[in-house]
Amino acid sequence: MIQVTDRGRGGWDDSRHTDNAWVSVKLRDVNDNPPMFHRPHAHITVKENTAPGTLLATLPARDPDRGGQQRVAYHVEGGWGSLAVDSEGGVSLWRRLDRETPDGAVGVARIVGVDAGTPPLSATATLTITVTDVNDCPPHLLPPTTFHVAESAPPTHLGTLTASDRDVWALGHGPPFSLSLASANPPFVHAHVKLEFDPHLDSGRGGAEIWTTRPVDREEYKELKVLVEVTDAGGVSETHALTLVIDDVNDNPMRPASKTVYLWKTEGGGSEAPLGRVFVDDPDDWDVKDKSFRWVGAPHPLFSLSQHTGDIFASTQVREGRYDLQFSVSDHLWGQRGVGANVSVVVRILPLDALAHATPLRLLNTTPEDLTRGWTPMNGQGVLGRLLRGVVGAVGGESSRVEVVSVYGRLPAPGQPKPFSFSDVSSRRPPSEPSSGGPSALQRPPPAPSACVWLSVREEGGAYMDPIKLQGLLELHTRKITEATKLAVLMDECGQASGTWPSGNPFFGPSLPHLLQDQIRDPSSAASLPSTSLPLQVVDVNSTSLVTPRLSASQNCHTHEPEHCVSNTCLNGGRCVRFHTGNRCICPGGSQGPRCKVAARTFSGAGWAWVRAPPSCLPARISLRLLIRRPAGLVFYSGPMAPTPRGPDAPPTPLLALQLWQGRPQLLLEGRGGPLKVELNTTLHNGHWHTLHIQLHSKGVALMLNLCGRGWQEAGHDESRCLARADWRDTEATAATWAWFGHRILQLGGMAHAPPLPDDHGWAAAPTSRPLNGCISHLRFNGQVRPGRLSRAQGRGELVDLGEPAVSEGSVGGCRPQEEACRGTIPGCGRRGRCVGGLEQPECECEPGWSGLGCATPTAPATLGRASYVKVALSFTPAPHVLTLQLRLRSRGARDGLLVLVNTHHEDVGLALHLRAGVVCSSVWGGGREERAACVEGRPVGDGAWHTVWAERHGHNLLVGVDDGDGWRRNESLPVLEDGGGWGPPPPLHVDKNEGITVGGRPEFAGVNLVTVRDDLHDACIEDLRLSGRPLPIPPASNSTTWGQVTTLQHMKSDCTAPDACLNTSCAVPLTCTSTWGQATCSCGPGRELVGRTCKDIDECLRQPCLHGGSCYNMRPGFLCMCGPRHSGHYCEWTNLDSTAYSLTGTLAIVTLTLSLVLVVVISVIVSIRVRRLWLARSREKRTREVDEVEEEPSIMQVKGGTEEGGGGEKQKKGEDQHQAFLECLKIRLPFGQPALRKEGGTSSVILPGGVAIITPNPILPRDDLRAYAYEGDGSSSGSLSSATSSGQRGDEASITKLVPAFLDVMDLLKNLPDATRSPSLHTPHTLPGSRPVRSILKKTEKAQVSSPGPPRALGTSVSPGHVSSVVAQGPRPPADSVYKRSCTESHQDCPGCVSVPLQQSPGCVSEPRHPQDSTTSY
């Protein structure tokens, strides 16, 4: 209660001067209290053999906010990564404990509780775990475990063996130990080695002395493997292997021998190549110090020999072929001199495609020497030969040829010495002391031997098989390869393959990334991501030696695709063509970007496709779009294709899968970090496109739907509807093993093999095997997300091409359901548009720079002057949480300024698109948070070319990009995904519909007076501004559209022009200056290049720029593509719609409309003729006098050397022979404007401006042809007027002329009927009488013959392959830059009397395009 007084007489005591009021204060709960644990600390003791799933403790927490009803989520940190916590705070064991691991006796786990408030608050409880020991570890031998004995030495004491145990000895889980020779030893080991056990050795722990019992001949046994059984006090035993090396003694003479070296050399040179050692037949192999080596005759200039070691090296200049070398070897110990040793070196230059398409596999329990022994490229024997035959069977068919690219063994781990190998030249000397060796080198047993082989496969036709396809086929048929080789085969990256030798090693080869920079077609190949150094590996087996480059696969987390192409980098049928700005891909319709990628793929519910898997980099991001028709299906899967052998304690096989379950997206992961399942409670099979983002980092994984930008206007909507996350159970194991997580193949839409079983791979659950029914689009892999200078994080996503996967089945490129949705509701998107909007609300979206019906109208540009700006009022209300901006920009240099600003009335929430030093940036602000920005620093736009720039705001998230937004042309700032949520509802951007859109600068007013324009961007051009997909006007060309109206503007100029930069520029002869939007360039001009000191024409046809089988003609300059009947475009890139693609309903509609028009026209002609005959009968005498007064002149005249010639006879035949040459001058439509029409006998003529006439005869149509009913008489042609007047009468032709367009419209419709191709009369070539073009002197006509005013119509010529027909061009005149003026050049020498005529662009013919990047002429 509040009491007040006016301080009158009596004050508080006088009720007349006081009053009371009750004020109710309702407190709104805010999230200001973190959760509270009932027990913040707890301690438990467990045995290390406790079964997984056992509940260890319960640590619930309560949040005081919201009356204690607020939900608390739990996760665990620490605890060896072996604990899990449920939604109630129950802590359980999810995998076995191991007390013997470092810090395994006592562990501390932190149970973190996080509430659901905004921002989320957390609290932590500590759980201390003491692990008690059980006798679960067998004893092991202490080093040394490798011993040496001299060859033929008497019985020798080799050393003493001792043992240890990692269990707790005080509990009887250790000594005393007993040691003995295992019964599994072969008889010759028992015959040569004995073990004398002594329980008093090693301070009473027990030990044994190891002895040889007789001399050992190295030529019989180079080393012995001795098995020793060790048992502890608890009876737990284990068998361990000792290695007994027999040191060689030079006790055998040598004999002559020969050797063949196979050198697989990479292109590009490099350092000298090691070839191994000169071979002589000598059973001794440690006697190199007793030998000397010399050339027989003169040394070969391309090879070098070490006289002390016998090592041979090949020069960097060696070329492909066979080289025969002769050497002699001397042994001073035996007194032998000049023993012959011939070496043949076979050199093969490995093509870069072989390296780029190679795939690795690893064979266990073998060495490179054992693998290659007995094998040669000709005989194919040995283990390697069996491996190659098994691979041929796996890839299917004897027509495939398998090539060995690289063979090597395991590299030592960092800090360990290189293991002993006879393939290493330096290891052919005995150790300085033939005893046990130093303990520092033997602290751990050597890894099991293995050999790594890289293979590539040539398919029929000579092309290399895609490495992704090869990898998948090999993995699917691993069992078949195992049976062929009798060895275990693993499809991995060969273990230590990422390691490299020290930089000073002389075996270094060329750097593969440098060699393949411009050659590799697809960065998915394993060898395209190799280690930075490429040494050569020698595998020497005495009589043969194989030298190959040591390939290795490394993870490239920052891929960058160059915008310029080479011959084999264009995808989906694109061609690399040379232009004055460099090489770029010419892409067929439906593909996009610098490499012609296809962004979408359709899966029919029984198909799949293979693409490369994302790089194993942390943090990493995967994003994609989905259009789903069924509620269940596999989106993608990266995991094993066949069961692999696993030990009882082996970690789960890595798995990464995204699936739909009951319409909801689920992400499944398996591996060392533990099983994870992340699910969103939102269904996706509603006919709309949905975007999914997956964030993988060292702590866990997050899944985000639609960038958390939709649904915020709905009551009760929060981040849980669009964001889900989970943490790894073992974060340390995940971070340490992530580099080898997953597989190299990502299967989309389904599996190409039988579904994997969880028990075979140690999984908690397996992904669904049901194939996807729908579309996957815009699959992107962000190799790494790193902090940026302007934004919280920057992510660059590489778009995966889905048009040409490595292998696929039951799927096609593009999204067919989306295209069909538009086809059924929209007349057509045209060639410059694409269907978007999903299945429920399909609509056409035009390519940047195009607009109008069918996306056929180019947008009009405008130039931003100094202090320029535009204010636009909106006629629609954009969505407040999802907003997109897009426009086309052309600028030069590192400019700064505002492009577009969208904000609310009070400017408290906004989105801006601007330039910073020539870099496109976007920024958002509002909701009390600091301004965030993201910039596309990898692609500046100040190069003077047109670029599409765009920005998107989805809730708190921001995207910005340039052009197609692929790779470095895109950036993202996704704080909701990166910061773990807790951002709360995003502030709505309610755009001020009156003045909320500002373009080109930010004006500031004082009252009604303009004070200044801040963020002024000038001397730049813009066009095609869109807000949320709706086009907005850009003055002065357009002041209004359906969606917006210009309210105020200043200093806006039409068009996009720049000063001539060649005014003050001079070029050396023969170069000329070309001004390209403000930049001067000295060159030979379009389509020419400088050769020596002369400018010569470039034959662009050598690169085959015409797609879909089009024919290329070099035009000097430029080139011309002549397309087949099914394709059109400057490069024949567009596929014309086939009549069979339309439904029966559409065909019937066309037929019905055509027949109706024919009937109307026929009736009109009959009525007109009858009326005209009646009128002519009354005025025959008057018109006869008027005709006599007309000065008679020849109607058609051909000019040659100043003389007039008529048409007909031999001259007409000659003109028919030159008909095709004349058509070269008339391959494009005639200009707009009304031509004059003349009728002469049985022909008609079209009189062009300038007096050029085209004569067309009257083909006779069959009487049963429908088209004959369009005319009066015996089937007159569309170019004839004889059907409109009586024979021998000359009436008023003005009324007839008016009917011609209708006649020709009908003809055009008839020609487009499905059966038009079966009517030869419609496609009869129109021939020209005479031998050269003609000029017509127009006859004076009466006033009645003057065309009546109205919209202009032009009669032109449309060229199709093989014929010329007359058509009518209607509609408004297009912009000037869409008209191509074709003149007579030296390439038209075969055109008789070629005439320069301005021609209109015609489908299928080449003309100057609307945009510079579509130019046909190359430079």
Short description:
The protein is mainly beta. It is 11% helix and 35% strand. The strands form 24 sheets. Strands 36, 37, 38, 39, 40, 41, 42, 43, 44, 45, 46, 49 and 50 form a 13-stranded antiparallel beta sheet that branches. Strands 55, 56, 57, 58, 59, 60, 61, 62, 63, 64, 67, 68 and 69 form a 13-stranded antiparallel beta sheet that branches. A 7-stranded mixed beta sheet has the order 22-25-26-20-33-32-31.
Show the helix and strand layout.
Elements: E1 2-5, E2 18-21, E3 36-37, E4 41-47, E5 55-58, E6 61-62, E7 72-78, E8 83-85, E9 90-93, E10 106-115, E11 122-132, E12 140-141, E13 146-150, E14 157-164, E15 178-181, H1 187-192, E16 193-198, E17 207-212, E18 223-231, E19 237-247, E20 257-266, E21 273-277, E22 291-295, E23 303-305, E24 311-314, E25 321-331, E26 336-350, H2 352-356, E27 359-364, H3 368-372, H4 382-395, E28 401-409, E29 450-458, H5 467-476, H6 478-485, E30 489-490, E31 508-509, H7 512-515, E32 534-540, E33 544-549, E34 575-579, E35 582-586, E36 600-612, E37 620-628, E38 633-638, E39 655-661, E40 664-670, E41 676-679, E42 690-696, E43 700-705, E44 723-727, H8 731-737, E45 745-748, H9 758-761, E46 773-782, E47 785-786, E48 794-795, E49 798-799, E50 807-813, H10 816-825, E51 833-836, E52 843-846, E53 850-851, E54 857-858, E55 862-874, E56 882-892, E57 897-903, E58 910-916, E59 919-926, E60 929-935, E61 943-954, E62 957-962, E63 970-973, H11 975-978, E64 997-999, E65 1002-1006, E66 1009-1014, E67 1020-1027, E68 1030-1032, E69 1044-1054, ...
Parallel strand pairs: 4-11, 13-19, 20-26, 20-33
Antiparallel strand pairs: 1-2, 3-6, 5-9, 7-10, 8-9, 10-11, 12-14, 14-17, 15-18, 16-17, 18-19, 21-24, 22-25, 23-24, 25-26, 27-29, 27-30, 28-29, 31-32, 32-33, 34-35, 36-45, 36-46, 36-50, 37-42, 37-46, 38-39, 38-45, 39-40, 40-41, 42-43, 43-44, 46-49, 47-48, 51-52, 53-54, 55-64, 55-67, 55-69, 56-61, ...
Helix pairs in contact: 4-6, 12-16
